[in-house]
């Protein structure tokens, strides 16, 4: 027994020594790991991993409510060698980079409307577009009336920073002409129900009005290689959305759960935060429930429904599944509550594949 106890003591001392050694050298081990991850991360491109087709890249599935696991509203679309971004909420640039999407490759950003949660990630996105691509022209921004004013304000706010960066790194690395945003505004013509915003390289983008008063708001339909994605933007249930989503392979639709929203609203009121309670009450009339989103998808005959801009937050694992369950009561096709980092691919020729691409 004494000898056995001595053996165990020696073993324990050895283990303790290994643990202590690992603790002492953990910084070096972590540095080696960073070397491997950084080399792989900078070399890999999400677009290079995807087949030819139309791809929905979920770079922000959250809302104005704080949520560590979700960036603000953002959807990137990869098609025909083009990278298009629809809305850019807080954290969008970070999420895109963590998915292997280089902001320097962005061709254009489209805004669905000018609520701040849909554009408060624009400045970091523009900075990364400039810095990672040595851009010689500002990031192109296309949106409804007021977009030019928004871009001008952000450009002015970041003008001093841009000057510092060019002075520090030099004009070859940070060309002065590439900083900031260049804005274009559009409006759906009177008597029309949509407007074509882009028709280039086989990729077509149209915008159509949706119901999100008092904001001037639109949804989008993106077409490439016989495949189509429709993006709702923020809206109450909208007949125009159902029309323009007809026959789409994928409908990306916002979703507000009235049941979960009522729980949060009640807690706000009971906690004496009447203003928050009033806001949570008011948002019900210009957002769409999962059941309503499912009904739109069913009416339009879409191939699949992806729920995003989830309201309220879903901090508890499994909570997002309630959105899926409610939408399935009105839609018979595939339904997913999306996460940041998800990609839905619509390859040329048919099929649908969902994957996940967050690196860290």
CATH topology group of the largest domain: Metallo-beta-lactamase, Chain A
Q: Major β-sheet, in short? A: 8 strands, mixed
Approximate shape: globular
Strand arrangement across the biggest beta sheet = 6-5-4-3-2-1-14-15
Pick out the low-confidence regions: none
- Estimated structural class: alpha/beta
CATH architecture of the largest domain: 4-Layer Sandwich
Our measurement of the CA-to-CA distance between the termini, rounded to an integer number of angstroms, reads 49 Å
H-E string: HHHEEEHEHEHHEEEEEHEHHHEHEEE
CATH class label of the largest domain: Alpha Beta
Please indicate the count of domains. 2
Oligomer: single chain
Using only CA atoms, what is the Rg? 24 Å
Describe this structure in words.
The chain folds into 2 domains: 1-43; 48-356, 4-Layer Sandwich (Metallo-beta-lactamase, Chain A). The chain is an alpha/beta fold and 360 residues long. The N and C termini lie far apart (49 Å). It contains 12 helices and 15 strands. It has an 8-stranded mixed sheet with strand order 6-5-4-3-2-1-14-15. A 7-stranded mixed sheet has the order 7-8-9-10-11-12-13. The protein has helices at residues 2-24, 26-43, 46-49, 92-98, 122-133, 147-157, 159-169, 239-244, 258-270, 274-282, 290-300, 321-328, and strands spanning 53-60, 74-79, 82-86, 108-110, 139-143, 181-185, 195-200, 203-209, 218-224, 227-231, 250-256, 305-311, 335-337, 342-347, 353-356.
């Amino acid at each position: 027994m004494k000898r056995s106890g001595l053996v165990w003591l020696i073993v324990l001392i050895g283990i303790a020594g290994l643990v202590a050694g690992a603790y002492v050298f953990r910084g070096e081990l972590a540095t080696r790991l960073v070397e491997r991850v950084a080399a792989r991360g900078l070399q890999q491109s999400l677009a290079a991993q995807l087949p030819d087709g139309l791809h929905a890249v979920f770079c922000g599935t959250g809302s104005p409510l704080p949520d560590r696991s979700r960036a603000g509203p953002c959807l990137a679309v990869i098609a025909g060698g083009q990278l298009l971004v629809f809305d850019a909420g807080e954290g969008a640039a970070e999420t895109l980079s963590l998915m292997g999407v280089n902001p320097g490759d962005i061709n254009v950003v489209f805004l669905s409307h000018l609520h701040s949660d849909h554009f408060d990630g624009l400045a970091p996105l523009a900075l990364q577009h400039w810095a990672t691509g040595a851009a010689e022209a500002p990031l192109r921004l296309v949106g409804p009336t007021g977009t030019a004013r928004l871009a001008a304000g952000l450009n002015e706010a970041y003008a001093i920073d841009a000057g510092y960066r060019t002075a520090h790194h030099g004009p070859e690395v940070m060309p002065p002409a590439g900083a900031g945003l260049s804005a274009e505004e559009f409006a759906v013509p009177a008597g029309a129900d949509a407007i074509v915003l882009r028709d280039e390289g086989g990729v077509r983008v149209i915008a159509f009005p949706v119901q999100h008063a008092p904001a001037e708001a639109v949804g989008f339909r993106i077409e490439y290689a016989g495949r189509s994605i429709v993006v709702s933007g923020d809206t109450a249930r909208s007949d125009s959305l159902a029309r323009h989503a007809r026959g789409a392979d994928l409908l990306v639709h916002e979703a507000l759960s009235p049941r979960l929203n009522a729980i949060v609203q009640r807690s706000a009121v009971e906690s004496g935060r009447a203003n928050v309670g009033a806001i949570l009450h008011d948002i019900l009339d210009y957002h769409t429930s999962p059941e309503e989103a499912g009904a739109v998808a069913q009416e339009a005959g879409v191939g699949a429904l992806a729920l995003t801009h989830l309201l309220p937050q879903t901090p508890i694992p499994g909570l997002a599944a309630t959105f899926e369950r409610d939408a399935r009561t009105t839609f018979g096709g595939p339904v997913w509550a999306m996460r940041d980092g998800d990609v839905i691919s619509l390859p040329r020729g048919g099929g649908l594949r969902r994957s996940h691409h967050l690196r860290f």
